[in-house]
Design goal:
about 130 residues; two-stranded antiparallel ribbon; binds iron/sulfur cluster
Length: about 130
C-alpha cells in the first residue's frame, strides 16, 4: 500500500522513516521524496497488512499520512492511444499492446505527475 507522508520543517531533521523501520521491523520502500528547507513529502510503499500500524506510528510522530488507493487515472473517453505517456513515465506504468492500445499498471505509479502535461488530450489526472 502506498502512503504519502508530509513532514513539517522540524520533522525534516529527524530520521522518522528509519525510526519506524527500527521500531516495527517492517521494510519500507521509499518510492519518491521531495524535501526542502521548510517541508518534505515522501511516498512510501509498505505491505498492506502492516499499513495500519505504520500509519498510526507515523501520525504519533507528527507526520501527516494519506493513503493512496490509486495511481494516475485515465479518462478512457479522451485517450486516443497516442503513446505520448509511454515514453515519459519513469516507472513504465503505461505500455502498448500488439494492437497499439495503451494500458496502465497503476500499482507502479509513484504519482510524480510527469505524464499529466505530456498528454495532448488531457486524459490523465491525479487523485489524492
Ligand atoms: S498521452 Fe494521453 S491520449 Fe496519449 S495514450 Fe497517453 S493517456 Fe492516451
Ligand atoms: S504520475 Fe509519474 S509514475 Fe505515475 S504514471 Fe505518471 S509519469 Fe508514471
Amino acid at each position: 500500500m502506498k502512503l504519502l507522508l508530509t513532514f513539517s520543517k522540524k520533522k525534516n531533521r529527524e530520521p522518522v522513516i528509519a525510526q519506524v523501520v527500527k521500531e516495527t521491523g517492517v521494510l519500507i520502500s521509499v518510492e519518491r521524496a521531495h524535501i526542502d528547507s521548510t517541508s518534505g513529502e515522501v511516498l512510501i510503499d509498505v505491505p498492506d497488512t502492516d499499513a495500519p500500524r505504520i500509519c498510526a506510528l507515523m501520525e504519533a510522530k507528527g507526520i501527516t499520512v494519506r493513503i493512496l488507493e490509486h495511481g494516475i487515472s485515465r479518462n478512457q473517453d479522451e485517450c486516443v492511444d497516442c503513446g505520448a505517456c509511454v515514453s515519459i513515465c519513469p516507472k513504465e506504468v503505461f505500455y502498448l499492446d500488439a494492437e497499439h492500445q495503451v494500458h496502465l499498471r497503476d500499482e507502479r505509479c509513484v504519482l510524480c505527475g510527469k505524464c499529466i502535461p505530456a498528454c495532448p488530450h488531457r486524459a490523465l489526472s491525479q487523485t489524492l
